[in-house]
Amino acid sequence: MKKLKMLIAFILLCTGAYAQKKPYIVLGTVQDLVKEGKYIYSFYQKNEDLVIDSVKVQNGNYSFAGDLDQMVMMSVSTRRYGDNVKIFVGPSEHIQLIHSKSFDDVAVSGSKANLEYNQVRAALAVYLKKMTEIDVKLDSARRLNDTTMLNTLQAEGKDIYHRMFEEVYPNYIKNNPNSSIALSMLDEYFGGVVDAKKLEPLYSVLTKEVKGSAEGQRWGKILEKAQRAAVGKQAPDFTQYNQAGKAVRLSSFKGKYVLIDFWASWCFPCRAENKNVLRAYNSLKSRGFDVLGISIDSDKKAWIKAIEDDGMPWTQVTDLKAKKNVAALLYGVDAIPQNWLIDPNGIVLGINLRGEDLVQQIEKLINQSKGK
Asked: Rounded CA gap, 143 and 158, in Å?
């Protein structure tokens, strides 16, 4: 601990440029876990920008310093694109990380927010341990070419992952409604894809102080947008333009089950998901099902090329306004891919349906709606 304090003092002396602004300092100890001279990366979101920094490991330590106007959730990683460890850093705070058995196995101190997040980290660790055990069994099943065991383990792993998200973050927020990190846990839980029915009960338990903060007010607006197109509500109507420049209105699909699919040519997860959407379209189009793709693109040529490359035969529209796409703003889209399934009368049946079992998810909702 004495060495850590001396190193912090040294960093403060070396950051004279920050003297007036009182910089934050993140100091990590990795010992032999990361080789000398290897890079450690940090990432955090500042408004619309992703702020990235990198430093080399020296004498088993690494450190980041800089200016912040408000607390941020920062990812610290051994990879250029990754988030091995998440921490909270505020203006002028000194945060200490001690990595033990692995880079991910870390003790964080230096602020109340990180002490609070340690509770979340401990809860996540229980599920992550189970998932690691599943991975070991999966490797064994692959070596034995045991298809039955593979399917069973994959289903089990998927269930554990789902329960981790559905239990850890909501439980923390409900039990700690005045926590300084409660709103950040909403970000972790939803990941930019918000379901109003899930957000409403979580936002409602937050204290007036938390709701009244700048971030709390932002989440209040997110909830308002999400409520416009919540399950059971009439899907907001809109008009956009196809490849030929012809206007297409959502309400013109009345009488069909429609998957309103937000995507973009530059979005790798979207392009990967397109094969699942194509499978659903081909399997269900004879049953009155259709897809309406809305692109968050600004480059028309790239948009059209992606449609052709991915072989998407359904109606595609855009207004080429990128993140300011009017339909995306109307539906409160903050991340893609994202979609809404509506019934023949335009009522929302489901949100954010994806994955290899997309056909089954859509079929289930269609059958449920017909059984009402």
From this structure: 21
Per-run averaged pLDDT (10 residues), the chain, 372 residues:
48 48 89 92 85 94 93 91 85 94 90 93 93 94 92 94 95 96 94 89 96 93 91 95 97 97 96 96 95 97 97 97 94 92 96 91 91 67
What are the residues facing 24 on neighbouring strands? 66
Cα distance between residue 99 and residue 319, in whole Å: 48
Please give the Cα distance from 184 to 169 (Å, whole number). 10
- Interatomic CA distance for residues 88 and 71, integer angstroms: 7
Peptide bond into 337 cis (omega under 30): yes
SS (H, E, C) the chain: CHHHHHHHHHHHHHCHHHCCCCCEEEEEECCCCCCCCCEEEEEEEECCEEEEEEEECECCEEEEEECCCCCEEEEEECCCCCCCEEEEECCCCEEEEEECCCCCCEEEECCHHHHHHHHHHHHHHHHHHHHHHHHHHHHHHHHHCCHHHHHHHHHHHHHHHHHHHHHHHHHHHHHCCCCCCHHHHHHHHHCCCCCHHHHHHHHHHCCHHHHHCHHHHHHHHHHHHHHHCCCCCECCCCEEECCCCCEEEHHHHCCCEEEEEEECCCCHHHHHHHHHHHHHHHHHHHHCEEEEEEECCCCHHHHHHHHHHCCCCCEEEECCCHHHCHHHHHHCCCCCCEEEEECCCCEEEEECCCCCCHHHHHHHHHHHHHCC
How far apart are the C-alpha atoms of 272 and 293, rounded to whole Å? 15
The CA distance from 197 to 174, in Å, is 15
Burial of 46 (0-12, 13-18, 19+ CB in 10 A): exposed
Nearest 5 degrees, angle CA 360-CA 365-CA 369?
145
CATH superfamily of 239-370: Glutaredoxin (3.40.30.10)
* C-beta atoms surrounding 87 within 10 Å: 24
The structural domains of the chain, with segments of one domain joined by +, span 2-109, 115-228, 239-370
Enter the CATH code of domain 2-109: 2.60.40
Question: What does each C-alpha distance from 46 to 74, 182, 216, 240 come to in angstroms?
Answer: 10, 18, 16, 31
